[in-house]
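The protein record quoted in full:

***
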Amino acid sequence: PRRSTAPMENTMDIPGKKVVVICGGSNGSHTLVADLGSRDDFEVRLITRRPEAWSKEVHCTEQKALADFFPIPPTPTWWVEYSGGADKIYDWDHADEALQGAHIAVLVCPVSAHEDILSGVLDNLPDHPLLVGTLYGQGGFDWLARKLLKGNKRAPFVTIFASKHYPFLTKAHEYGKKVTLYGRYPDLRVAVSPNKPRNVEAVKFFLSAIFRKKVSIISDFLVATVGGTNQVLHPSINASIFKGFKLGETVYHEQKMFYAAVNQESAADMYDMFFTEIPTITWALDSALKRNGSLRHQLSYDWLSAVLGRMPTFAQPRSVMKHGIGIIMRNHHRLKRVKAPMIPGETKDGKKGLVPATRSRFWYDDIPHGLCVLLGIAELLGLEVPKTLSLIRQNQEFMGKEYVTDLPDSKGSFLCGRDANETSAPQAYGVFTLEDFLEFIVWDRDSEPPSITTFLKEERRAKL
């Protein structure tokens, strides 16, 4: 049976059902299909490469906690179950049909898949306004959207949005059929372009209805790009638990856990990133952009790093903090069951076992579209970020990639490896100076030609 959704306090008035297009067949897509498909005020459409694999309903088992914000012992947890299905399922050859008449298109996919999926949406835009965004805005989502919208006559119809934090910790156990939702992120912080009152209101209205949470608006997509947490957590843990791994030479004989395996080394890396290097980048960006503190104070851990940084070195509780990070990770109700990304593999001499799944999002999202972006911004700002550089080097070796080199080039940049063009760093967009970067990050949506009125006239003439 379908559940009703409590009405949201908002001046938006949508007659009939809210039409949501879920883009991609990821773990999160399974969760949204089950959740929204069980509620009577949504029409759910799904675009996926494998439409035939989806059943009429997806069954979700969800872990609940008294407080999403603090899901560690002694906070009690319990499980609920529900099922829901997409009203219509399309392949990407019919994306235009899926988007026609929709209100919002949500990318639920790895960051490394953003370009392919966003292209599929923007190449098939309907002739009416549409909200288009991602549930995880790491890696400069607005830069990508601007590149893909350039020259698109329907660009003025589009409102772009990106969430700072991914809203779910979830895993599909049977593709198209069953999913387990281990928890929901406690809040939603979203960037919007154009950042105008009506566009902001529309995004808040739909996302708060979809996730049944209050939505806060962040001032910049940079907050999502610089402040993403996965790009710190995943590389730090991978560098520790797979330390010494050599492709073709090493296999493991048992499945490793992930967050439950956080040790002092990985916790120390997280500390250095969260409380030293990212705040250093953020403060420099805030100054360069003349934001008077508004940018840096939108990062949740900035206040703590500011306090710690003003303490004498002998009094800074780095050892205490990294110990606390480890305890939280290992005992977190949602995280402690997560397994490390591993797949069957073998050595060059035929020894079989398990190896890190280095083509998974734990690497392909968080190195080229995470840490490399931070490094690229830091280099433009003239900053040294040794921990960021070290984590890239360790993880790229697992991947068989070269994003950064051992020695700097003539510009003093390490981000010049043979695979650097695969990253989402500003340098991959042809930006190599701070002046160019400050100009690059300003997206003036008012300058997008032609106007909607002009476009509609052209469409009418074409139909006559």
